[in-house]
Each structure stands twice: as structure tokens, then as C-alpha cells.
Design a protein that fits this description.
By secondary structure, the chain is α+β, with helices and mostly antiparallel strands. The chain has a single domain, classed as Chalcone isomerase. 19% of the residues lie in helices and 27% in strands. It has a 6-stranded antiparallel β-sheet. The termini are far apart. Keywords: Membrane, Transmembrane, Transmembrane helix. It comes from Hyphomicrobium facile. This is Cytochrome P460. Pfam families: Cytochrome_P460 (PF16694).
């Protein structure tokens, strides 16, 4: 093979290296985890889960999503029927900064910049000391397009383990520690 014949191979190899590097960079979120607890990778595909509900505070708009295990539990009447959610139930709560729409008629608030994502997973053996639930909050940085575990300096403050949300959720212990009801459709 002479020098002119090797250029296409060099170009293809270089292109594959760049594409491969982008693919690895896109997967970085799935390597992040809360110390001694939940990993982002345990919630792969959460973006496509059905919506349970939405919420809005002064500082955030959120959509609460649940995996199929949790959706089926909701549909069966849990937690209103007094039964606990089954192991394998998972919730993702995605928060955005509220923003006024410049296009919709009337005063309409829409999601702006993403702020963070929170995860909750039911595993009664793994998280026995926190009501059977593990919690994680990951802060989103738009500049780097990366997530990092929330800390005590974030709002709300998060300890650095899978029990970070348990203290807040104890006020709904009668609902198996879950605030969000499944909205009528």
C-alpha cells in the first residue's frame, strides 16, 4: 500500500476515533453515582418513562416519571390501598427553571434550563434503614452537559448517600414514603 492509498484509512480511523469519543462522552452520566448508594445507570431510559404528575414551585417546574413496575403499582391502587410499592419501583423527578413563554398566548410558564434530576428506588433489602427506598439527587451543569451528585450546599441540601431524601419523606410514611399521587387520566 503506498502513501496515497493509506489516506482513506487514516481518515476513517480518525473519524471513528472522534465518533467513539463522542459516544463515550455521551455515556458519562451513567458513570455517576451517589456515594454508598444509587447510580445514574440504574435509571437508564428514565427519559421515556410515563409521567405520574407534575409540580411547580417558585423555583422549579418538575415532571415526575415512573418505571413500569411503579406505574402498575399505582394503577393497582398503591399507596392509597395501604399496600407498599413493590421492590423495583423507581421514580425520576426532572426539574427545570420556570420561564415565561414568549410564544404561548397569555401568561404561560414553561420549562427553561434543566436544574437537576432526582431518583428514588425501592429495594427493601438494600435500603432497609431508609424505609426500603434509596434516594439520589444529581445537579445538571449545562456548560459541561454533565451531572454531579448533589451536596449539602445544594437546594434542598443532600447528604452524600442513598438516604439523602429519607428525612423529608418520613412525613408521608403512611403512603410508603412517596409524596406524588398518580393523577386521574
Amino acid at each position: 500500500m503506498n502513501g496515497s492509498q493509506s489516506w482513506p484509512i487514516v481518515i476513517i480511523a480518525g473519524s471513528l476515533t472522534v465518533v467513539g469519543g463522542l459516544a463515550i462522552a455521551a455515556q458519562d452520566r451513567y458513570t455517576v453515582s451517589v456515594p454508598n448508594g444509587l447510580a445514574f445507570s440504574e435509571f437508564k431510559g428514565y427519559e421515556d418513562w410515563p409521567a405520574v404528575s407534575v409540580s411547580h414551585t417558585e423555583g422549579a417546574i418538575a415532571v415526575i416519571l415512573a418505571n413500569p413496575v411503579m406505574i402498575e403499582a399505582y394503577k393497582s391502587g398503591i399507596p392509597e390501598n395501604g399496600k407498599p410499592f413493590p421492590d423495583g419501583s423507581k421514580i425520576a423527578k426532572v426539574h427545570w427553571k420556570p420561564e415565561k413563554s414568549t410564544e404561548a398566548p397569555g401568561p404561560t410558564t414553561i420549562p427553561g434550563a434543566q436544574q437537576n434530576v432526582d431518583f428514588i428506588e425501592k429495594d427493601s433489602k438494600r435500603f432497609a434503614d431508609s424505609g426500603g427506598w434509596g434516594y439520589a439527587a444529581f445537579i445538571y451543569d449545562a456548560k459541561s452537559d454533565e451531572f454531579t451528585p448533589a451536596t449539602v450546599d445544594d437546594q434542598p441540601p443532600q447528604e452524600n448517600d442513598a438516604k439523602c431524601g429519607f428525612a423529608c419523606h418520613t412525613i408521608v410514611s403512611a403512603k410508603d414514603y412517596i409524596f406524588t399521587a398518580y393523577g386521574k387520566r
